[in-house]
Amino acid sequence: MVAPMPLSEKALIAQIRRMAESARHLTDKSRRTGVSAPHGQGQADRARPTQILTGIGDDCAVLRVLPDRDFLLTTDFTLEGIHFRRDWHPAESVGYRCLARGLSDIAAMGGEPVAAFLSLALPRDLPQAWVERFMRGLLALAQKYDVTLAGGDTAESPNGILADITVVGSTPRGKSVLRSAARPGDRIFVSGELGGSAAAVVEMRAKSRRVKPQDYSRHFYPEPRVELGRILRQKGLASAMIDLSDGLSTDLAHICEESGVGAEIESQLIPRARVGKPTREVHLDLALHGGEDYELLFTAPAGKRVPAQIARVPLTRIGSITRGRKIFVMNPKGIGYELVARGWEHFRR
What we know:
The strands form 3 sheets. Strands 7, 8, 9, 12, 13, 14, 15 and 16 form an 8-stranded mixed beta sheet that branches. Strands 1-2-3-6-4-5 form a 6-stranded mixed beta sheet, covered by helices on one side. The chain starts with 8 loop residues before the first helix and ends in an 11-residue tail after the last strand. The chain is 32% helix and 26% strand. The chain is built from 9 helices and 16 strands. It is an alpha+beta fold. It folds into 2 domains: 58-176, CATH 3.30.1330.10; 187-338, PurM-like C-terminal domain (Phosphoribosyl-aminoimidazole Synthetase, Chain A, domain 2, Alpha-Beta Complex), CATH 3.90.650.10. Helix 3 (91-108) runs parallel beside helix 4 (128-144) and helix 3 (91-108) packs parallel to helix 7. Strand 4 (112-122), helix 4 (128-144) and strand 5 (148-156) form a beta-alpha-beta unit. The chain is globular, with a radius of gyration of 21 Å.
């Protein structure tokens, strides 16, 4: 008997995407021909004006509901033992980071967030005080970005905390910044500094205890770059964009795969975070592969002038988009190596 293949996040998403697109094509065909889809769905579909412009494969789904606006929808899990540990993370930080993940996806599309929906699955013995602190952290960030918590659901979890956040936003019609529009010759930029969040995880694992959130604020209270993303979209500076949730190596690979291009980045240009006390610069590996920085990675056409900072956030050019499909890292001597995506990936062993 052949053993089943282990799960791979990339393969799993690709399979779901293929199946969803196949089902969507069948639905579209039923609308055109008038032949009912299974279970009588055809009539309802023909009456529904919503168009799905971008589905699985980008930071948000893009739906056209109104003639002049496109809606953005994104959803993110926060799982105990995967994204946080109660003995390492204050409850306020867990709530804050839960919403920050969704807001960062909206920022990556150049969108404006509007509302959020929170679903919680909680163990029976979880103290009420922990939930209250979680909500304080989440709502503090929601108020900062004028986002309404509009609903959700609750359930009992057999083990561990699960929080699922859905964030709704919008962009002007046809103006969402996608991952799929990078072109050879475009320059590659990142906002802020990289590796600070991963450095906190490394420190906590090494010491098996909490660290001070103020010494590693990029991990405990990351700042979603909503205003920056909106301005990049308004000024037409970004040809493609993604938020750095899984790490530079992995997220740059997403842009290259969706755009059908390659990239070359210069190691000495990558802005590395300074963390801890006394502060120290993080190792290059953490800047390349560490996740949960929630900065923006974007490409800009060669003819566009990108300022050194926007909305008080520094922007750094780190490389260029190339022909081909591979990504290379070049050192100051011009010697390069192929960059393999080693950022965060679920199901990786």
